[in-house]
Amino acid sequence: MQTNRFTSRRSFLRHFAGVASAATASLTLPRSLWADPTQIASRVEDASDSHPLSPAIQKAFASLQSLDDVKSYTALLTKQEKFGRNLVKSRIELKLREEPFSVYLKFLEPMAGREVIYVNGQNNNQLQAHDAGFRALFGTVSLEPEGSMAMDGNRHPITLIGMRKLAEVVLDQWLDELKLTGVTVNMFPNTRLGNTSCEMIETSYARPQAGVKFQMTRLYIDSKHGYPVRVQQYDFPDRRERNPSLAEEYTYSDLKTDVDLQDIDFSVKNPRYAF
Prior knowledge:
The protein has helices spanning 2-21, 31-34, 37-46, 54-65, 148-151, 163-176; strands spanning 72-83, 86-97, 102-109, 115-119, 127-130, 141-143, 183-193, 196-205, 216-222, 228-235, 245-256.
């Protein structure tokens, strides 16, 4: 009986950790880049003005700068991520504070009621999470955000969530692609994202080549504030496909940037949470 309980808890932790950290919103990015904004600025400044990617890079960098005065915000995070041939969609309520980097997630679908908290420098830099339904009996678990359990079957760790990380990873990708040829860049200044007016920047490649991870990338920038609110990444089609397939999509909507989030908003002791 003890063995069964242990096995059940271990299976639960693997399942829980996987989906909890899947609530993130960016490509894997070198820590040296996203941890140092001056390095990003330096790379953008050194970018060639003659390359087709230059206008896209400048606009992405401007969207990153638009977040300089945004210290915290709430949003609805809608994401789609491909695992194998399956596209998994989630809707999550998000609270985010930049300093110290703090995240609170509440799942709306799937796994409604699941909550996850991560605060840089606290709880040994582990995320804290609990499930809903019968799995709530296991209580709150602590997991390494980039550990094998948390990353099993998932694209990104929770430490890369948020609009700032979204803009940084797209910038990193495009800056790396400056050494390549064959990119097509299109700008769509009058794109609608629900009720939000956006400019959409699209980069694409006709065929695979070394150094190109995605066939097509789309970055959506809120026209009113300049915030980076959506990124879409498409894989090259395989032999069974005619068109590029969506690999991942992250959208931030219902944004509220005039909120003053406090420590209690990122604490398992918050009486409004179910930890």
